[in-house]
Amino acid sequence: MDAEQSRTLTDEERIDWLRLIRSDNVGPRTFRALLDHYGSAGAALDALPDLARRGGASNPPRAFPRAEAEREIESATEAGVIFVALGEPGYPRRLQAIDDAPPILAVRGNRDALTRPMIAMVGSRNASAAGIKFAERLARDLAAADFVIASGLARGIDAAAHRAAIATGTVAVMAGGHAHIYPPEHTDLLEAILAEGAAISEMPFTWQPRARDFPRRNRLVSGLSLGVVVIEAAKRSGSLITARMALEQGREVFAVPGSPLDPRAEGTNALIKQGATLVCEAADVLDVVRPIIGRIGDPIFREPDRERMSDPEPDSDLRGRIPDLLGPTPVTVDDLVRISGAPPALVRIVLLELDLAGRLERRGDALVSLSG
After folding, report:
1. Rounded to 10 degrees, what is the CA torsion of 70, 73, 78, 79?
2. pLDDT tens digit string along 62-89?
3. Within this chain, do residues 338 and 226 fall inside the same structural domain, yes or no?
4. Is the N or C terminus of the chain more exposed, i.e. has fewer CB atoms within 10 Å?
5. Cα 99 from chain centroid (whole Å)
6. Do 156 and 19 share a structural domain?
7. Domain-ending residue, one of 262, 292, 322
8. pTM for the structure as a whole
9. Are strands 360-363 and 367-370 parallel, antiparallel or unpaired?
10. CA-based nearest residue to 104, from 252, 301, 276, 251
């Protein structure tokens, strides 16, 4: 959505948006599909039980209660957290362009930091002294060039990058809610970040982070940024997940080389062999990202298509055919439309029904499969 097309939700709409994204079986992609089809979050909430029943659910998904949404907003507001919705002026524009952007972003601190160009820096939690020293130097140099440093508030490289950029602005992306800082020893670091920078989360205010929440957080770290710099990453690490997500989002990937004898350099050295830009100084990053600062790309989110609300309902035959065409291997929605011979709008409705019944897995913006 272009800046001139953005709008601010009313208080009622914000509550409905929060309720919808907190409801069972509703993720960012499902949220967008519901909003696009029904025109508003309120109408989508009303439709959830019937959609799930038609998709084969024995028990309808739980719609997040209004009272709980109001309590979350009240608690967050008391802590200085505001909820910014996808498409609103304060929502980070680059993040808005990824296909699974959070419909609601909980923001604390200096929101101006979210409007400036960002570079993500990630790496090993058990970083070496040399890795930490280089991360600090690189973060300071990039900050001096007027870039905000984004990272995940983790131990090691993340913390070093945040600390080095505190004075000019850094953004901490949290895996849990704002009421549960992780790791707990970084509470003071986060407080220091908030003066010039910000902390963001898509999770409920009181959410305690779990293992599966960290990869989910990583897509936001890369999504905010022009590119991701990886400093010290083992062969299997969260930092490499961030790099993979960056590539999927069309972001630049940078890697700092390390000794072949150090397991913490296996991942970064492998990234360089695969085509990541080798980084020895800030200029290696700046030369790549400066020419693309103004290129954000078309945002994925658009205002709902009101005409789609008048689409006819799929019949029982199509509701049977679409699950039969699906399996554990992802296929594109376009292929489902072509092979089924059904109108795209009707196929989308059946997929929504399966999704809300917990029977569908969305993989990327256009790939779907049956849940395992």
Report:
1. 150
2. 999 999 999 999 999 999 999 999 999 9
3. no
4. C
5. 9
6. no
7. 292
8. 0.91
9. antiparallel
10. 301
Model pLDDT for residues 111-130, shown as the tens digit of each residue: 999 999 999 999 999 999 99
C-alpha atoms less than 13 angstroms from C-alpha of 70 in its C-beta half-sphere: 5
Residue by residue, DSSP assigns 154-194 as -TTHHHHHHHHTTTT-EEEEPSS-TTS-SSGGGHHHHHHHT
The helix/strand/coil state of 349 is helix
Q: How far apart are CA 238 and CA 243, in angstroms?
A: 9
Enclosing domain of residue 332? 314-370
Q: Residue 109 phi/psi, 5° resolution?
A: 110, -150
Cα gap 204→190, rounded to integer Å: 18
Strand partners, 341: none
Cβ pair 351, 322 in contact under 8 A: yes
Task: With respect to residue 194, please indicate whether it lies within any of the assigned structural domains.
Answer: yes
Shared domain for 71 and 185, answered yes or no, is no
Q: What is the maximum span of the chain, computed from C-alpha positions, in angstroms?
A: 63
Cis peptide before 183 (omega within 30 of 0): yes
Instruction: Give the number of domains in the chain.
Output: 3
Residues 118 and 218 in one domain: yes
Cβ neighbors of 13 (< 8 A, separation 6 or more) are 40, 41, 42, 85
In terms of domains, do 33 and 124 share one?
A: no
CATH number for the domain including 362?
1.10.10.10
Alpha helices in the chain (DSSP H): 11-22, 28-38, 41-54, 66-78, 93-96, 129-144, 157-164, 187-193, 213-223, 238-248, 266-273, 282-289, 316-325, 333-340, 344-356
Structure tokens at 12: 């009622």
Which residue spans within 50-129 are E strands per DSSP?
Answer: 81-85, 104-109, 118-123
What pLDDT, on the 0 to 100 scale, is given for residue 120? 98
The answer to whether residue 18 sits within a structural domain is: yes
Burial (CB count within 10 angstroms: exposed 0-12, middle 13-18, buried 19+), residue 67: exposed
Give the domain-ending residue among 61, 79, 97. 79
Q: Are residues 121 and 259 in the same domain?
A: yes
Residue 37 domain-assigned (yes or no) = yes
With tokens 């970084």, the residue in question is 186
Q: Identify the segments of the chain with pLDDT beneath 70.
A: 1-6, 296-311, 364-365, 372
